[in-house]
Each structure stands twice: as C-alpha cells, then as structure tokens.
C-alpha cells in the first residue's frame, strides 16, 4: 500500500473491491489507519479504524472524491452533529479504541479477520487477549447474543458513528433505559 498523508481524502478499498469507504485520514501507524468516514451524501458517518493488512487500495484525487469534497463542504455550515476522537487518550491502537468504547458505553461495529463477519453491539469487558461483546440486532435494537472476540482477530472497528448512535438511542428507549445518548 502506498504511503498516505494525514488530512487527505481517500477512497478506501478493503476485502471487497465492489464497495469502499470515503474518509479523511486522521491517524496511521505501522498497523492501523483511522479515518473520519462520510456517507454517500457527504455527511459524517463515523470513525473507522482499519488494520492496514485488510486495505487493498487507497485512491486519492478521483472524480468521485472531487464530488464528495463538494458534498462534504455543503454540510459544513449546517447544524449537524460532528464526530471526533478527542476523548481517545494515549497511544492509538485497537486495544485503546476498545477501552474507549467500553468506557463510553457506546455501540460499535467490529469485523473479524477469520470470517469477515461484522458484529454490532456493546463491548462490555476486556482481558489480556479478548473482549466480550453483547451483540445488538439492528432490526429490533435488542441484545441477542454475547460473544468473545480475540483482539488480534479484529481488523476493522466503526465507532462514534451516526448509525450506531441511533441504534444506541433505540436500544435504550425500547429497553426502558431512557438516558439518551450524548
């Protein structure tokens, strides 16, 4: 993978070359890249952390990205929620992101290397090698399973995202926990 520049907008292709994400590169080290991702209308979608080994290509300067920059600019003066990772302290790593998600009691989406399965839910506890996740069904906002995930197997995390914040709001309200999400 070619070197990328912090603050640039990219098309990020991972395991599936048919679909891709669009985002500004916020941070990278030898193992991970973190992007502020945008939906197809240019609205902030979430913070995406990819292990570099699952990124097949990152494109910059495409015609599509030129259009997306305009879409993103359109939303800048609108009164919508903006996303950040300001509360993430210390070294940025998969483990640190998971601890942040646990402490914030938010919903995250995690992809596992071994099967490319995506799990959405609450990361509820952590030990030296794994985390527990209470999986939330996106069709009804109810917890349906509790699984253990090996941290080394995690290749993608979506957190501080609009989709997961809305799911958290629905989960809390449908389950009698009306302490609205921040």
Give the biggest beta sheet: 10 strands, antiparallel
**Total helix count?**
3
Q: What string gives the helices and strands in order? A: EEEEEHHEEEEEH
Could you report the average pLDDT, rounded to the nearest whole number?
87
What amount of the residues lies in strands?
35-45%
**What is the rounded Rg?**
16 Å
| Order of strands in the sheet with most strands | 5-1-2-3-4-10-6-7-8-9
Q: Give the helix proportion (percent range).
A: 10-25%
Low-confidence stretches: 178-182
Write the layout of secondary structure elements.
Layout: E1 9-13, E2 20-28, E3 32-38, E4 44-51, E5 57-59, H1 63-75, H2 94-104, E6 107-112, E7 118-126, E8 130-136, E9 143-150, E10 154-159, H3 162-174
Antiparallel strand pairs: 1-2, 1-5, 2-3, 3-4, 4-10, 6-7, 6-10, 7-8, 8-9
Short description:
Helix content is 20%, strand content 37%.
Your description of this structure?
It is built from 3 helices and 10 strands; from the N terminus they run βββββααβββββα. The protein has helices at about 65-75, 95-105, 160-175, and strands at about 10-15, 20-30, 30-40, 45-50, 55-60, 105-110, 120-125, 130-135, 145-150, 155-160. Mean pLDDT is about 85; it is low at about 180. β7 (about 120-125) and β8 (about 130-135) form a beta hairpin. The chain has a 10-stranded antiparallel beta sheet, sandwiched between helices. The relative contact order is 0.16. The chain is of the alpha+beta class and about 180 residues long. About 20% of the residues lie in helices and about 35% in strands.
